[in-house]
Amino acid sequence: TMHNLRLGVGEIVELTHAARKQLQNIAQGLKAEMQASKVVHGDETGGREDGQNGYIWAFVTEGPEAVRYFERDQSRGHQVAKRILGDDFDGHLVTDFYAAYNLILCQHQRCWVHLLRDLHELKETHAEKAEVVTWTKGVRKLYDDAQSWLKEHPEATSQERQVEYEDLFTRAGVMGRQYALSYEHPCCALAKRIMRHQDELFQFVLVPNLPADNNLAERSLRPLVVIRKISGGSRSDEGTKTRLTLASLFSTWAARDQNPFLQCLNALRHPPATAPPIRPRTDPPPVRRSIPCPT
Question: Which of 93, 116, 127, 250 is the most exposed place for a label (fewest CB within 10 A)?
């Protein structure tokens, strides 16, 4: 009977590998859904395999058809993100300021929480310099003004959004040019970042309900980071595939408010012969509240 069933570690491992192979088509279907989404959040973190360093990439979406998709690659280069997203991806990619994402040819929204943290650190490090404090507060005000405007204009038209975007874009350029060429000034690095990503800071003003931060991807990766800290990584390519495939499936079911156990049981009983067709996401992602960050 099941009550008396006793399995060794090796048998459990073989069962999980077998489950992954049977559910692989469903995971591929999730990847296709992610690639067809209008808004995708991307992030990456370290992931060791057989003692070798590598990276776990996460590409996730929000809403009723939310997707959590994970893959590992030895590289942290842009070609990995490009391969996973696919050549036809034409949505908005929400990420931090990591340079690999610069080469992905799509619309970008860069994470303001990352920028606000760096502004806060800069201000605290140079608290005695009035021009640094003034500048960091000025950049922070751009974000606050954008969020305030959106709150005050929930039904803004595309034209109104465009006007507000152009105003914020222009103001950001003024702030960036203030120190972008002052190579010895403490504000130089962040000023250059603003200039480099000037058109990617306020896409959330142009696009209704587009988040201004990348916390969704970071939160989605957190369970895998905890597993990595406990286990130190996986021992083989097979183990990595099993871990990340099952993580993609169970995290997606949970994000969709479905019972992961029941979904997995049903999928194992009735596995699809092929990957499910792409289901383009037509509904906008839900409204996200801005996450305050002191500066």
Answer: 127
